[in-house]
Design brief:
Residues 147-239 form the Acyl-CoA oxidase/dehydrogenase middle domain. With 409 residues, the chain is α+β, with helices and mostly antiparallel strands. 49% of the residues lie in helices and 14% in strands. The structure holds flavin-adenine dinucleotide.
Length: 409
Amino acid sequence: MPLSESPTPATPKSRTSSTPEPAFMDVDLMHVWQLLDPAEHQRLLEIRTFLQERLRPESIDYWNREEFPHHLLPEMAAHGLGNLQIDGSSDLFKGLVYVEAARADVSLSAMVGIHNELIVGMIHQLGSKEQKEKWLPALGNFTALGAFALTEPDHGSDIAGGLATTATREGDEWVINGAKRWIGAATMADFSLVWARDTSDGEIKAFIVESDRPGFTATKISHKIGLRIMQNADIDLEAVRVPESNRLPGVKNFAAANELLKHSRAWVGWQAAGVQLGIFDIARDYALERSQFGTALAGFQLVQLPLAEILGNAMASLSLMTDLARIQSSGDLEMVQAAMAKSTTTRLARESAAKGRALLGGNGITTDHEMAKLFGDVEVLYTYEGTYEINSLIVGRAMTGISAFVSGH
Ligand SMILES: Cc1cc2nc3c(=O)[nH]c(=O)nc-3n(C[C@H](O)[C@H](O)[C@H](O)COP(=O)(O)OP(=O)(O)OC[C@H]3O[C@@H](n4cnc5c(N)ncnc54)[C@H](O)[C@@H]3O)c2cc1C
């Protein structure tokens, strides 16, 4: 398919049904979208239209108010966004949906990614037959929501060794004690997937903890500078009792978490590629619309330079992720590749966001013009799913054979 047949998003305010085809090239310079088969390509275009026309314009106000647009969930479900993990989609298609979602709004793309990679994926791969039957159909159409509860107040980067939440077996039940921090959607979810250390054998296990269990409380974390639509929460677990049937039988130790995190790190790489396309969309539109010194900004060399740099960063990220999807599809993905992709694409995204913000001048300082919203969101991509530094250390360890995570060792 030629580039021009792949529609280019425009800013919500300038997009109308009578908007003529832009005279400039589409952003798919590396022909990545063309790698999809025709059915997936068509489906992606429909999803892109929904995300650009419906979700993106609404997201700005919800982001400013730190609220979640619950009314959009049924529409997101109607476009299959709740079921990507198990509907037979190719890794490339799923990745490009994550790209288009992040291009429209990073918070809602986080909702879609965590839901698919870490909730549906975890229950599908590691849950019991009964757990799958009970939760997967409702998760698939967003009538049920889950949260992924791994990080703790005192253990972020060192969670693998430091995880302090405990689970103690008492007869046919488990008693869970501890605290979790930063848990996405926990205030609105039906359940959290809680990672806890078995007090008898010291191994990490995982449990479905329904939000109405006595002793479970989730408190929203406010005043975030990014991902403001996502309702992140502090969770307290005070002698919460769950039946043995709520334990995920596939989780025997932390290796299960690492396997999930490998793929969810790849998802953040797609998010980083997508947000850079969003940054480019906004920057190019602004440069064409705004005039100074009697000329459109886009006519100045020093404005075309950051536009070219942002697009170059976005394409480098997209191409890297497309190669990662090829490895994913062959079943050979290793943590070092996911960590390298996540750290590299988020580093580039941070650079692109800074250039995009500067290009909007003063209007890059207010979220009304969208760019500042993306500028804040990129900071979260840089930090969650393993910080930039931790993912770089994973790469460094693989390349030198020396683990540098703990100083003095
Ligand atoms: C918006 C948001 C959403 C999130 N959503 C979820 C979620 O849904 N579920 C979930 O379980 N978690 C979630 N997280 C948690 C996230 O994964 C952690 O924030 C992240 O792993 C970092 O942990 P930390 O914040 O405790 O930072 P720390 O581990 O305290 O790190 C602080 C700084 O020290 C650096 N550092 C730490 N150790 C080393 C080292 N050995 N060498 C060099 N530098 C080091 C880090 O890179 C960082 O710069 C979310 C976080 C955010 C901000």
